[in-house]
Amino acid sequence: MSYAEEIRRVSRGEYGDWTAALHERGVLTLLGAVLLVYLLLPFVSFFTWIEGLTLGAFVEPSVLSAIQYSLLTAPVSTALATVFGVPLAYVLARSSFPGKPLVDALVVLPLVMPPVVGGVMLLTAFGRFTALGGLAAGLSLPLTDSYLGIVLAQTFVASPFLIITARSGFAAIDREVEQAARSLGKGPLETFRLVSLPLARGSILAGIVLTFARAMGEFGATMMTAYHPHTMPTQIWVTFISNGVNATAPLVIALFAVGFAVVFALQSVGKRITFSS
Amino acid sequence: MALALEGVRLEYPTFTLGPLSTRFEPGVTVVLGPSGSGKSTLLSLVAGFESPTAGTIYLDGERIDHRPPEDRQVGMVFQTYALFPHLDVRQNLRFGAAPHVDIDRTCELLEIEELLDRDPETLSGGEKQRVALARALVSDPAVLLLDEPLASLDAPIRRRLRLDLRDVLADLDIPVIYVTHDQDEASVVGDRLAIMLDGDVVQEGETGEVFDGPVSSFVADFLGMENILSGEIVGTDGQETLVDVGPTTLVATGLTRSAEVDVAIHPRAISLAEPGVETEGNALPCEVRRVVTQHTDATVLLSCDGIGRLTARVDVRDAADIAPGQSLVATVAPADVHLTEPDR
User: In what order do the strands lie in the sheet containing B3-11?
Assistant: First the structure.
């Protein structure tokens, strides 16, 4: 059956019965369903596990403080990754230069490396006893165990998501469309702003969503560079170690809610956002 | 306003363009050549998307090869049209419009007034082509480049649009470089013709002159002269030349420097007549091998005494009575027997 015919059948409501879809794509649907069940299982089991949860647990000072730090740092990390990552993604998509494969590898490295290793390396660059870390601490801006330390860890671990998705978005733009803009009198920056950026906006927004989600959930590198103040993942770990699964419920639910809200908000904005010339 | 290339050369690892030295005066110059001959690369150099390895490009006496594309005043229509998909037609036109240009007038000229609020993805290929041309024209270019502007269209639309294009381009008082690999399009659209092969311009001149006097078998073949025969000059009186093609002697009006020549004859230059009918020009007794009809044309494959295979193209109505095995006389006027330098 062609895709068009399938669309027509969907529009006629012929797939109202999900078993029809199962029948059409039998093996593929079953294989996909196995993973879906595996992904869903921990959520269901967690929410059936927890008991005795009260509203008061959500306003515990440690919970509120962790929510506050996560909500203050993840947007900043995402903004930093976006401001610097989008231009980098464009350059990687459009330019060739000596050593580009190394730059490509560097961009992916934080993804394939355990975050805790990233945290160790960040300590060697920005720790209190390094040149940079010492200088910053001298200016009362410590780069570890601080708000800045959390941002550094989140940006290091999460920015590859933005760079990789934005880069694929830029690479998919027809080069001749950008050349057309140049031949119509627009310089490289104007062409980037008026043509490349709007055409890659879907990929960039997807990258922002992924980066934000990763920054919100960042634990390994953050624990190494900024165990204090606790972000939500760090607080969940501390609470779990001292009080068990049940005690983590308020923060897990809060993390869950914030993640969902932000993802849906960005998706909604993405559909309506326009760029004019 | 003229565009001049002086010793322009561009080297790639597997291909070299030029060195090219040529001028493009106001009017339409069609650059014709096979795929990979360097036509589009030539446009990229003029537009500024590529930088020459050597040589200079002048526009109206001013050097422009070191300028970025946005400072060259070179408008371009791409084969894929390259309309901005996130902008509607009106916004596409306004994107690079010169302040003093009357956009409405251009829309009227290209009959796109009704399309202004449409998104590019909703336009047909022909409509996209018109919008792309309008967008380039309203930027008030000093040079207009068209890279196979009709290549993505279906044949009937292509035939109709090339006539419209000719009218629009003929009114522009700027150099227009029109790249195509379609010789029919080239003969309709251009005042001048430049033939490219392997990165070089191998022949250029007035369109009629080039079609009438291809300098090589390659050019003749590319211009649609499907009949290329090896010959030898056996006599000339300054006006007419006698050339032996096998045991047959043909009369041609052209001259050539060498005795060894290739004889090129366009399939349309061959008239077919019943044996015994009085004809003028070179008369070649032939037998019909095959007749292939295509819409309004018929291609007649002939086997001629002493020459071998010839291809004639006639009106499909004239081919109605022609059948394989039939004996005919193929007639070619001396002016249509083109003598060219052999490629070998």
Answer: B16-24, B3-11, B54-59, B62-63
